[in-house]
Amino acid sequence: MIAEEKGFLGSMTVVSLYTVILFAGIRTAGRARDRLGKLLAVGVVTMLFSHVFINIGMNIRIMPVTGVPLPLLSYGGSSVLCSLIAAGILQNVYIHRRS
């Protein structure tokens, strides 16, 4: 829908913002204090990336259509809630990282 309304630049902006979130999560996982923090950060990043990858693949018709929403962007109460909880866990790992 963003591609229809905002065009190529809007789509690339969304993809680049998800890329920033992905790399920030990977950096957070690398700087985590303990193994649990690393695993939590990697799990959150993997979940977000897989949802983004599947959703974008469905929209450009290279993957089968499933019910996977685009994190932090698609409409749906439980999806947004789970995405925000996952982002909160990632922020918690970031706050408790080693200096």
Which features would summarize this protein structure in a list?
single chain, 99 residues, mainly alpha, 3 helices, 0% strand, elongated
Q: What can you see in these coordinates?
A:
74% of the residues lie in helices and 0% in strands. It is an all-alpha fold and 99 residues long. It starts with a helix and ends with a helix. It is built from three helices and no strands. The protein is elongated and about 45 Å long.
SSE blueprint and pairings:
Layout: H1 2-30, H2 35-59, H3 77-95
Residue-averaged pLDDT: 91
Distance between the termini: 41 Å
Q: Main β-sheet, in a few words?
A: none
The helix content, as a percent range, equals over 70%
Going by helix content, strand content and strand pairing, the class is mainly alpha
The SSE order reads HHH
Tell me the total number of β-strands. 0
Radius of gyration over all CA atoms, rounded? 15 Å
How would you concisely characterize the structure shown here?
The protein has 99 residues and is an all-alpha fold. 74% of the residues lie in helices and 0% in strands.
